[in-house]
Amino acid sequence: EAPVEKHEYQAEVSRLMDLIVNSLYSNKEVFLRELISNASDALDKLRFLSVTEPHLMEGASELDIRIQIDQENGVITLTDSGIGMTHQELVDSLGTIAHSGTAKFLKALKDSKEAGSDSNLIGQFGVGFYSAFLVAEKVVVSTKSPKSDKQYVWEGEANSSSYIIREETDPEKFIPRGTSIKLHLKRDDKAFAHPERIERLVKNYSQFVSFPIYTWQEKGYTKEVEVDEDPAEAKKDGTDDNVEKKKKTKKIVEKYWDWELINETQPIWLRNPKEVTTEDYNEFYKKTFNEYLEPLASSHFTTEGEVEFRSILYVPGVSPMGKEDIVNPKTKNIRLYVKRVFISDDFDGELFPRYLSFVKGVVDSNDLPLNVSREILQESRIVRIMRKRLVRKAFDMILGISVSENRGDYETFWENFGKHLKLGCIEDRENHKRLAPLLRFFSSQSEEEMISLDEYVENMKPDQKDIYYIAADSVTSAKNTPFLERLYEKDLEVLFLVDPIDEVAVTNLKSYKEKNFVDISKEDLEIGEKNEEKEKEMKQEFGYICDWMKKRLGDKVASVQISNRLKTSPCVLVSGKFGWSANMERLMKAQTV
Ligand code: ADP
Ligand code: MG
Fold first, then answer.
1. Closest Cα partner for 158 from 190, 128, 125, 183?
2. ipTM, 2 dp
3. Which of 231, 423, 499, 546 shows its CA 20 to 30 Å from the CA of 563?
4. Cα-to-chain-centroid distance, residue 251
5. 69 Cα to the center of ligand 2, angstroms
6. Ligand 1 atom closest to Cα of 37?
7. Whole-prediction pTM
């Protein structure tokens, strides 16, 4: 007998286990989803590593997940032929919080307690491996990593703060590679140990797993056998004098046990888009990215020709909880596959520019090598082409939201990702044409609802050449600025740039549909026709006041001038033609502090 080691759970795990066992009653069935997803991850890891280390596959070449159900004793055993765990990996993985989703769950649970709401969080987040204890009083994990020559057993119980690890010594329990998880169900949860129930859960929760999932099932087939005819029967048809015994065929059902495949393993992105419903796409999204909100939009496409790849992209729905860090996005939003082998979700930056880092999706390429690395991606011409196509598709998808009947969708989008697109105006000159129509601003004629540049242009006066804007820190301060007086009078619309990044974005764009963006706070703003006679008169009459003021103010101003831009205010401070606008100066100051 190998010695038994006792280990204590990390404090968070103990807390979580306590919660799982004592208070999370609803949605217990997610345990299966979590265990299957771990099995699928383990198979993915093995398949990926075996590309460069083929010997890892030795001993068991099938990559699959098998579920055995012992109805009588209420035991479910889930076995995968994946990467398994070494002794150290067991301790690291099944005694601490490894799962980012679990950490998210704990945080959300805390937030929801504070907010006093009682939402069904466990179904939304899942708690990874520990969700086994939603239904099991005892869990036994037996695992064999190809990196270790020993197989180890982990055992934990529902109401314990510790678990044990020992070496497997019973040859009957040896597996060539992978992990087998045995759940001894709680008395009230034994009903889960039913083949139909399990099959239903797999169909419900794990339909996007791309490895075969089998259950061990009793089956039957009917066969025909020849039997001697019953002598009583023979009598009835009045053939007693016939001594020959009659033969008769009879159908009987032969029972046997076998593995039954219960899932479809073709990845959703390989299916024909015509046969995939919006619900399928949304489900896939939620399961793949651990999201509980529906996406705002999705796009499924194949590109052929020079570079071949398939992809499904999503614009996430947005939770009030998590706005992303726009400058340093830590995303894992793009899952890269090569010929259906999952490679990594760490290459977002290589496949999308930073400002589109909020886009989620899967990309499956046939042209990249399986052992692709970041260095290869960065050098690759293929990736450059893919990136271009992906960006274009992402824009199409966003444009789709912007023209949807439901204006609210784009408002939600804009509120959450508008900043990203403005950052795009600064960082991605090449896509200005795609970015500009997606921008939204308040204006002097639309203070409540944001408008697009197209709407602005449509509303331009026949002789208006430029797009006017004023940058300020709020709509209220924008509309009270004296610069607006003449434009109001002439009924000219002015965009209110109230987000600090707005002005930088617009100055980067320079123009839209050949109309320049013009800052109405800059000197020598010209609106409409000039009246030279009048100007001359004014200069004669007020010139000396200007000189006097300039003398008094000295270096504080560059110059004092007569202007026709005001209506009721006596004077206004403007920026020089080539200088920073007042708003930019504010920004610069804010940055140097
Ligand atoms: P996550 O899957 O998000 O990492 P889990 O709590 O579900 O978190 O699992 C914790 C860790 O346990 C996994 O990251 C993995 O290292 C390990 N693990 C769980 N199940 C298996 C398995 N079937 N085969 C190999 N490793 C596993
Ligand atoms: Mg997991």
1. 183
2. 0.99
3. 499
4. 54
5. 22
6. 2
7. 0.69
